[in-house]
Amino acid sequence: MIPTIDIAPLLGGPSRLRDETDRRIMEAAGSVGFLTVSGLPADMPHGPEVRSRLLRVFTLSEEAKRRLWRRKFDPARPNVYHGWFPLQNGAMTYKEGIDMGPDVADLSFVCDPTDPLTEPTPLPDEGTVPGWRADAGRYYRGMERLGRLLMGSVARGLGLPDTFFDDAFAGGNSTLRLIRYPVRPPESFAGGDMSAIMIEHQGKGRHLIGGAHVDSGFVTLLAQDGVEGLQAREAGGTWVDVPPTEGTLAINFGGVLERWTGGRIKATEHRVIGPGRERFSIPFFYEPRVDALIEPLPISGISPFEPFLYGDHLWAAMMRFVEFRGLEAMRAPRGVKAKAS
Fold first, then answer.
1. Looking at the whole model, is its pTM more than 0.85?
2. If you write DSSP's letter for every residue of 108-157 in order, what string do you get?
């Protein structure tokens, strides 16, 4: 069962209601690893109109989309990590969309020319989707604000100061992704492993459009479009639907946060099954700076591990996905010693 939690109390100062909200968030994070949140601030961009404006990017012509492709799909392109990913036949996932970095919301963000994780985001011409860049920037900033609220709640739930994670996320490298899952045509299965793509759900044969995986980072804030399909795996192995309820966001936690908290927070496997109609989603991956040092937290019960830089972890994790596979050599690990020097 995926709980829904009203997070309005997180917007205020210390209170009994905030303490109870923190408790419920930690309970969900430590059990199923998924929740949906309501009570979003009125000034935080969300809802059907906001989604509609962001999803206008999918009205671009194929030629305009191609100008945004990543190097994985067009070797002539300079961008490696940010940009457009087209539909891929024969893969477990069947989706297209765009990944955007902090520069879409903060023009002063400094891109390191030696690190593809911080590269500039290729964006469509303003004239093709007027106002879209501003819409994307507002949404990005709103999700950053929500990410800070949730990490503050997590910190309190762990017995840490609510600002404990703020330094790692200052000048962070979060990603805003817009995804379209079209109805999957027969030719999209060509060359794929049908035993992995086809599943049984509620006694019927269904196909995957998003393969089962665990997010690599910290917190994912997902806006759904009201179309079913997202599922999370419970501890017993059962797949449960994550309800696409209007006025809520789906929240799940990533592998680094699970490791950082000694397993007190669960990184839950999830997937998307084809609903038989077009589906859109807007995940925001709230992430720290690429040079943020991840080391054991100062709380009891944490098993020792070798400290690492978040960017090194992120790059290695992303190479598992079809959108990046084969690009491993494009970024060398920085290493903790390099940061210290």
1. yes
2. TPPP-TT-GGGPPPP---TTTSTTHHHHHHHHHHHHHHHHHHHHHHHHHH
